């Protein structure tokens, strides 16, 4: 008992050192517990992947091939380590023959995809920038009709992963997000996604999965990191300081758009049986002696463009990929424009919400549904666009929807969750 009293007396006499030691040991224990939880998650994912690897294949069947486009610079240079520890073992245990292609500089993924050979699946390991470069390079290829049928998997390793909530169940644990995304690739369930083709007057087209953003909220969001020293107040400070420099922050733009197209029914591709040999011989002889007459080319009806003048704080042209399993009547993109009568307080409040979800718009915003649109900026209007969180110089552009152009792997749990939200 005397020894216990002596220990407590020592702790009381050296209370500063004792407090510091408790803090250090508490943090160390929390850190070790987090590492243990990550190891458990990796082990569970590897056990599931091993079941895929033990499945038998026919003698004439070959292993599935996957090409991985990895951006090592994503997540502040941690992406390569995250992939090697959390995703690569799962793919190897599942028996997938992977080819890892690492990018060395910005824009290289576009060039690599243009040289890529045919593969069973394409895996993008990075963030929004890597994903946008990959789909741009893919859809710029001359044989893009063939390559666009290749299923694509997305492993979120970047600081911004805008598409990830549409495909996977997200958590606060990076390891869990990576392992669940990799397992969804192995399970093979896919969903079609719309793509936006964005073309300037002289530039090659750029392709996007989420949308194009232009306006005051975008400009302020690009400066928030400068106020890091203000901690949780940095978002409010960035919006408030922007109003001190200039107010109101209204942009004028002319938007021309085409009406949306009706969405054709979802029908699985049907492979018709091949006719017998005698029928094929008779058909060839008939076509040889009396070839069919060529039909005159049909005259295409001119596109009916409608024009609208908008005065807005922010314009956002977006796809419906936020909920890719939703059944819609039309194949369309959404043109959303915020009103121009915000007060300074409303501007700061809405800006805070948009920092968490850029696709969020107020009730009084203008919303147009279209299959294509053209943006005509006034002379002297500078600034930048955000195209899938990548910065591009603002200029007059034409945006066209490519409905259900690419297929992405989606987790079955996330699909069920999205379907339940619609009910």
TrEMBL record:
| Matching Pfam families | AGK_C, DAGK_cat
InterPro entries attached to this UniProt entry: AGK_C, ATP-NAD_kinase_N, Diacylglycerol_kinase_cat_dom, Lipid_Phosphate_FormReg, NAD/diacylglycerol_kinase_sf
Q: Give the bilayer topology.
A: Peripheral membrane protein
Pathway field of the UniProt record reads: Lipid metabolism; glycerolipid metabolism
GO MF assignments: acylglycerol kinase activity; ATP binding; ATP-dependent diacylglycerol kinase activity; ceramide kinase activity
Entry GO CC: mitochondrial inner membrane; mitochondrial intermembrane space
Task: Output one GO BP term.
Answer: sphingosine biosynthetic process
So what does this thing catalyse? Answer: 1-(9Z-octadecenoyl)-sn-glycerol + ATP = 1-(9Z-octadecenoyl)-sn-glycero-3-phosphate + ADP + H(+); 1,2-di-(9Z-octadecenoyl)-sn-glycerol + ATP = 1,2-di-(9Z-octadecenoyl)-sn-glycero-3-phosphate + ADP + H(+); an N-acylsphing-4-enine + ATP = an N-acylsphing-4-enine 1-phosphate + ADP + H(+); 2-(5Z,8Z,11Z,14Z-eicosatetraenoyl)-glycerol + ATP = 2-(5Z,8Z,11Z,14Z-eicosatetraenoyl)-sn-glycero-3-phosphate + ADP + H(+)
| EC number, as in UniProt | 2.7.1.107, 2.7.1.138, 2.7.1.94
This protein's source sits in the domain of life called: Eukaryota
Q: Which residues form a coiled coil?
A: none
Family of this protein:
Belongs to the AGK family.
Q: What is this protein called?
A: Acylglycerol kinase, mitochondrial
């Amino acid at each position: 008992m005397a020894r216990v009293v002596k220990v407590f007396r020592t702790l009381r006499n050296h209370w500063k050192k004792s407090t510091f030691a408790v803090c250090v040991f508490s943090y160390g224990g929390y850190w070790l517990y987090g590492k243990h939880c990550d190891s458990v998650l990796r082990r569970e994912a590897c056990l599931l992947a091993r079941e895929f690897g033990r499945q038998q294949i026919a003698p004439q069947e070959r292993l599935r091939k996957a090409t991985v486009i990895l951006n090592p610079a994503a997540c502040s240079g941690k992406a390569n380590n995250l992939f090697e520890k959390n995703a690569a073992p799962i793919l190897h245990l599942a028996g997938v023959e992977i080819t890892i292609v690492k990018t060395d500089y910005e824009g290289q993924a576009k060039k690599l995809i243009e040289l890529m050979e045919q593969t069973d699946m394409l895996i993008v390991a990075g963030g929004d920038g890597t994903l946008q470069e990959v789909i741009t390079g893919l859809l710029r290829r001359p044989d893009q009709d063939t390559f666009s049928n290749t299923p694509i998997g997305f492993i979120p390793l970047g600081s911004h992963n805008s598409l990830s909530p549409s495909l996977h169940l997200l958590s606060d644990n990076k390891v869990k997000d990576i392992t669940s995304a990799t397992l969804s690739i192995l399970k093979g369930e896919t969903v079609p996604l719309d793509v936006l083709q964005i073309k300037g007057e002289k530039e090659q087209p750029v392709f996007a999965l989420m949308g194009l953003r232009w306006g005051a909220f975008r400009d302020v969001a690009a400066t928030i990191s400068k106020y890091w020293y203000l901690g949780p107040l940095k978002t409010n400070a960035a919006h408030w300081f922007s109003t001190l420099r200039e107010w109101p922050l209204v942009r004028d733009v002319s938007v021309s758009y085409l009406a949306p197209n009706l969405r054709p029914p979802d029908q699985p591709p049907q492979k018709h049986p091949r006719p017998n040999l005698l029928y094929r011989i008779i058909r060839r002889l008939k076509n040889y002696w009396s070839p069919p007459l060529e039909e005159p080319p049909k005259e295409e009806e001119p596109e009916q463009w409608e024009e609208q003048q908008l005065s807005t704080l922010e314009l956002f042209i977006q796809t419906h990929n936020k909920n890719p399993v939703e059944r819609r009547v039309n194949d369309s993109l959404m043109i959303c424009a915020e009103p121009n009568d915000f007060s300074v307080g409303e501007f700061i409040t809405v800006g805070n919400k948009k920092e968490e979800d850029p696709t969020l718009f107020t009730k009084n915003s203008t919303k147009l549904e279209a299959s294509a649109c053209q943006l005509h900026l006034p002379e002297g209007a500078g600034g930048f666009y955000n195209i899938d969180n990548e910065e591009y110089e603002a200029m007059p552009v034409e945006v066209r929807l490519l409905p259900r152009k690419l297929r992405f792997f989606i987790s079955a749990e996330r699909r069920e969750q999205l379907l339940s939200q619609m009910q």
